[in-house]
Amino acid sequence: MITLIINIKELLQIRDSSILKVSGAEMAILPTIKNAYLVIQNGLISDFGSMDDLPNINPEKCIDADGKIVLPSWCDSHTHIVYAGNREQEFVDRINGLTYEEIANRGGGILNSATKLNEATEDEIYDQSKNRLEEVISLGTGAVEIKSGYGLTVDGELKMLRVIQRLAQNYPITIKATFLGAHAFPLVYKEDHKGYIDLIINKMLPEIAKNKLADYIDVFCETGYFTVEETEQIMEAGIRFGLKPKIHVNQFNSIRGIQAGVKHNALSVDHLEIMKPEDIEALKNTDTMPVALPSCSYFLSIAYTPAREMIAAGLPLALATDYNPGSTPSGNMNFVVATACIKMKMTPEEAINAATLNGAYAMGISETHGSISIGKKANLIITKPISSYYQLPYAFGSNLIDIVILEGEIIA
Ligand code: NIG
Ligand code: FE
């Protein structure tokens, strides 16, 4: 099956497929072709170039993208979209003055979602989660990482990971699964941290590995959650079971979680709202991708990741949604890109690089996703007619997406 897209006003993020991420000053460059064509063959990008060089081919399908921009689908490398119910009451409690931390300390927060998750059937969780997945696909996301972490029991965690596996089987979007049993200590283990960590290492991890239910391991390394030592212990166990770490660090406090992640060759370290100079230093010349989650900062009214300082230090940066019921009930990558520009002072070029190629790197798929490159998956966004790609962050509340293509097929 050959699909041809012609008259593309501007084709964004064209790269040689050997480029797996962009860092520092390179992030300001977004390579494009104006007045372009693109050929899709068997779900992959097989050719692209200027309309002046349009090859003579006979496609089964031709899309005229006159006035429209084409870019790779968003790569959302950090989400928790498998969950049950919602936490709208906590949202109102925060409006009325409580903090995220205070709500968690009185048994709300992650533990509230864990109760709901354990009470729901696997089918109920699947049905709720698929609606969220369908929504993010329609918003231009073509690859997504999904975490467990609202089970906090052997059965609950396995149930979540099976739901993620079922979503991956039933939808054309690329999905990576992350085991986040170390999201919070369940109430019964409040005074027995060692007991819960033993459960993670000796009961959850072997089952997960045996059934190939996860690609990565995550830990919420934060004051009141998992210490750096506990985080290291859990990362090491995950690595023994073949799971690379991708961890939550520096959301509220800088406690040397980044250094622990780098030491264990984490694929990514995520959140990074609170960054000390030594945290930035620790990330230099490593293979670990820093990931910012600006919708979380927006929703909780907390600090934004200091993107300018990090990029000035030569670091790469990825952007993701953090879609979850507590801190970020939104999976809209378009909003993430706009908020990164508006609140973190990233340029449109930097934000688009961060939400495509670097996002793909942060979930280990940048050899196949995240740029317009020959041989990569034809996961594409075709915009409505727009004046330039600046519109994407500028018109922050508008949906500028006309067509979503996944593996060469028009999905939305
Ligand atoms: O990434 N910070 C830890 N985990 C999630 C929020 C979890 C929740 O509140 O349900 C996050 O923000
Ligand atoms: Fe998260």
CATH superfamily of the largest domain: Metal-dependent hydrolases
| Rounded Rg | 21 Å
The amount of helix comes to 25-40%
Name every ligand kind in the structure.
N-(iminomethyl)-L-glutamic acid, fe (iii) ion
Strand content: 15-25%
Query: Which ranges are low-confidence, i.e. pLDDT below 50, for 5 or more consecutive residues?
Result: none
Mean pLDDT: 98
What is the second-level CATH architecture of the largest domain?
Answer: Alpha-Beta Barrel
Q: Kindly, what is the distance between the CA atoms of the first and last residues, rounded to a whole number of angstroms? A: 19 Å
Overall shape: globular
Look up the CATH topology of the largest domain: TIM Barrel
Number of domains: 2
Number of strands: 16
What is the subunit arrangement here? single chain
Count of DSSP-assigned helices: 15
Structural class, from helix and strand content?
alpha/beta
The first-level CATH class name of the largest domain: Alpha Beta
User: Main beta sheet, described?
Assistant: 8 strands, mixed
Describe the model.
This protein is of the alpha/beta class and 412 residues long. The chain folds into two domains: 2-73 and 371-410, Urease, subunit C, domain 1; 75-361, Metal-dependent hydrolases (TIM Barrel). The protein is 35% helix and 22% strand. The protein contains 15 helices and 16 strands. Strands 1, 2, 3, 4, 5, 14, 15 and 16 form an eight-stranded mixed β-sheet that branches. Strands 6-7-8-9-10-11-12-13 form an eight-stranded parallel β-sheet. Helix 9 (277-283) links the parallel strand 11 (268-271) and strand 12. Helix 4 crosses helix 5 (154-170) and helix 5 (154-170) runs parallel beside helix 6. The model has no long low-confidence stretch (mean pLDDT 98). The structure holds N-(iminomethyl)-L-glutamic acid (NIG) and fe (iii) ion. N-(iminomethyl)-L-glutamic acid is lined by residues 109-110, 113, 220, 248, 251, 296, 322, 324-327.
